[in-house]
Amino acid sequence: MGLPQAGLWLRRLWVLLQVALQVAVGKVCLILFPTRVKQHIVAMNRKNPHFSYDNWAPTLYSVQYFWFVLKVRWQRLEDRTEPGGPAPNCPVVRLSGQRCTIWDFMQG
């Protein structure tokens, strides 16, 4: 299932470089053009009534943002499957809040 180990690490390196570049460019744009970046982010989130730029601005393009995006993108690399192959064992959260994986729901 999934990519061979060497291929996975090369893809992870590529994703690391992509995310680092995106965060660096975003941080530079946030510093050089703060008003334009604010307009763009607010326009993208107009459908969400709970979104507040003032609450989210400190986290944008921060170190925590970098690690979160990197972790999600790396997880997506491993979540792929091939037709006819076993499904990836993705983490899920029950309605009760308990963390488990998809394979925990397999029966028989």
From TrEMBL:
One of its GO terms (biological process) is thyroid hormone catabolic process. One of its GO terms (molecular function) is thyroxine 5'-deiodinase activity. Its main location: membrane. InterPro entries: Iodothyronine_deiodinase (IPR000643). One of its GO terms (cellular component) is basolateral plasma membrane. It is found in: Basolateral cell membrane. Keywords: Oxidoreductase, Selenocysteine, Thyroid hormones biosynthesis. It is a single-pass type III membrane protein. It catalyses: 3,3',5'-triiodo-L-thyronine sulfate + iodide + A + H(+) = L-thyroxine sulfate + AH2; 3-iodo-L-thyronine + iodide + A + H(+) = 3,3'-diiodo-L-thyronine + AH2; 3,3'-diiodo-L-thyronine sulfate + iodide + A + H(+) = 3,3',5'-triiodo-L-thyronine sulfate + AH2; 3,3'-diiodo-L-thyronine sulfate + iodide + A + H(+) = 3,3',5-triiodo-L-thyronine sulfate + AH2. The keyword Oxidoreductase applies. Predominantly monomer. Can form homodimers but homodimerization is not essential for enzyme activity. Responsible for the deiodination of T4 (3,5,3',5'-tetraiodothyronine). Belongs to the iodothyronine deiodinase family. This is Iodothyronine deiodinase. It comes from Suricata suricatta. The gene is DIO1.
